Amino acid sequence: MKKEFGPIKHSLQPRPNVIVSCRSKEGENNALAVAYASNCSYAPPMIMVGIVPSRYSYHMIKENGFFVVNLVPKSMKKEYYYLGSKSGRDENKLEKLNLKIEDGKKVNAPVLSDFPVNIECKVVDSMKTGSHEMFAGKVLYTHVDEKLVDSEGNPDFGKIDYL
After folding, report:
1. How far apart are CA 161 and CA 72, in angstroms?
2. pLDDT digit string, tens, across residues 5-43
3. How does pLDDT run across 98-109, given as a tens digit for each residue?
4. Average model confidence (pLDDT) for the chain?
């Protein structure tokens, strides 16, 4: 079998798509759609998210040092694409979508409680990889919708129909 190749942006399709919410030092909340997200350690639990430095949220995360990863079910496809196509420089996206916001329990960042799982993270390191800066965040607290908790009190992430 002959294979041909040419320039490509990426060779893996990152999953899952997530919404990362953050807060500026001045208290402004914002959120953006992020395709580059992954576990990067289990001891301690850590998540890595990739943010392009030109994004409005980039400096909020860089300066404040906190972010929240909000897992996206298919039922919130509209919100995901809106948050990924508009900039917080131009409008308050969270107000526009009428998303419910709560303060993080352990981090200075907004929790988007309309999403079924919210993972509060503190930035412990970052690395520029070219187009993105990868922020490694230590998981400090996880909010899980009660519908996703099994009879033993453990989260069942398999119940989420991911986007």
Report:
1. 8
2. 666 555 566 567 899 999 999 999 999 999 899 999 999
3. 999 999 999 999
4. 92
Contacts of 45 (CB under 8 A, 6+ apart): 39, 138, 139
Who's near 146: CB < 8 A, 6+ residues apart?
A: none
CATH of the domain spanning 18-147: 2.30.110.10
Task: Name the nearest CA neighbour of 84 among 14, 18, 32, 22.
Answer: 32
Tokens of 156: 């069942």
End-to-end CA distance of the chain: 34
What is the model's pTM? 0.92
With b for 16 or more beta-carbon neighbours within 10 A and e for fewer, the 147-157 pattern comes to: ebeeeeeebee
**What residue type is assigned to position 113 of the chain?**
S
Tokens of 38: 């992954």
